[in-house]
Amino acid sequence: MEELIKKAGILVEALPYIQKLNGKTVVIKYGGNAMISEELKNKVMEDITLLKFIGLHPVLVHGGGPDISETLTRFGIQSEFVNGLRVTDDETMRVAQMVLMGKTNKEIVSLISQKGGKALGLSGIDGELIECEKQYANVDGKIVDIGYVGKIIKINQKVLEFLANDDYIPVVAPLGVDKEGRSYNINADTVAGAIAAALKAEKLMLLTDTPGIKSSPTADDIIYEINQKEIYKMIEAGTIAGGMIPKVKGGLEALAGGVNNVHIIDGRIPHCLLLEIFTDSGIGTMITR
Ligand SMILES: Nc1ncnc2c1ncn2[C@@H]1O[C@H](COP(=O)(O)OP(=O)(O)O)[C@@H](O)[C@H]1O
Ligand SMILES: CC(=O)N[C@@H](CCC(=O)OP(=O)(O)O)C(=O)O
């Protein structure tokens, strides 16, 4: 009996959060590095389905970088990253599109369906959801061509609003399209930040494979709160590096676009989304303006 009463208590504790977030949009970015086991993936999809059923409007943006890398290796194609972005030639683009839409997106959609949710998978190419142009990288002041990497110009969010305001959970793959109809590979954190801003989401949660932002990639600590100025200092010092760069930039873009809350959280913790949303302290790193 005591156990049951405790369970009821936990549910009641969530009430103020449920009331506050009812009808609000939350954008969740699920990074490839956090998709480490079927069990964890299941728990993340359970959380997202639960959020939908209690009245929030979750929109999921997924990555899949490790899967793309593994498939490229199997095809004998070399892959290189510049400023955290994959250099994407014609062949790499085809593989990225195949893996993201043919594998990752559909696996997630199926998992949500198994949990009883209604998920609809789409990429930024569908309905011209993500309009982009070619992105160049800046390496020590030099402009570098990184191939078919997309710079987002516009999010045509109507389709997402339509789905999220209905019974659906949109599941978005990070691809975009330019005016000429060419497809582009876009970092999933960048996509999540831009979508959160376009939807004026209440929250953006970036799920990854570290407890949050640390004082350096190899440190054991965690920075609970960090602002824009501190972020740029760390990027300059090289203590925020690699895949963390597009993540923090995506977070800052979301804040600039009017999103109230941005968190980088450890997607390897079971039910990390519920812990972040329904506890006072939350988990991970909060990014502020
Ligand atoms: N200051 C930092 N704190 C934490 N992680 C960092 C930091 N700087 C760089 N990183 C790296 O960023 C990685 C997360 O980005 P990424 O590999 O792109 O993950 P995801 O697939 O979730 O997008 C971490 O595993 C870590 O190696
Ligand atoms: C341009 C670019 O870097 N695109 C990424 C898209 C996938 C992604 O961002 O996946 P994660 O979130 O799992 O890292 C890539 O090709 O890996």
Automatic annotation (TrEMBL):
InterPro entries reported for this sequence: AceGlu_kinase-like_sf (IPR036393), AcgluKinase_fam (IPR004662), ArgB (IPR037528), Asp/Glu/Uridylate_kinase (IPR001048), Glu/AcGlu_kinase (IPR001057), NAGK-C (IPR041727)
EC number from the UniProt entry: 2.7.2.8
UniProt KW keywords: Amino-acid biosynthesis, Arginine biosynthesis, ATP-binding, Cytoplasm, Kinase, Nucleotide-binding, Transferase
GO CC annotation: cytoplasm
Recorded GO MF terms: acetylglutamate kinase activity; ATP binding
GO biological process terms held by the UniProt record: L-arginine biosynthetic process via ornithine
Coiled-coil boundaries: none
The protein's annotated pathway: Amino-acid biosynthesis; L-arginine biosynthesis; N(2)-acetyl-L-ornithine from L-glutamate: step 2/4
Keyword Kinase on entry: yes
Compartments, record wording: Cytoplasm
Binding site for substrate: G64, G65, R86, N185
Marked site: Transition state stabilizer: K29, K247
Reactions that this protein is recorded to catalyse: N-acetyl-L-glutamate + ATP = N-acetyl-L-glutamyl 5-phosphate + ADP
Main location: cytoplasm
Aspartate/glutamate/uridylate kinase domain residues: 24-266
Catalytic EC class: transferase
HAMAP family for the chain: ArgB (MF_00082)
Recorded family membership: Belongs to the acetylglutamate kinase family. ArgB subfamily.
PANTHER family: N-ACETYLGLUTAMATE SYNTHASE (PTHR23342), N-ACETYLGLUTAMATE SYNTHASE, MITOCHONDRIAL (PTHR23342:SF0)
Function (record text): Catalyzes the ATP-dependent phosphorylation of N-acetyl-L-glutamate.
Name of the featured protein: Acetylglutamate kinase
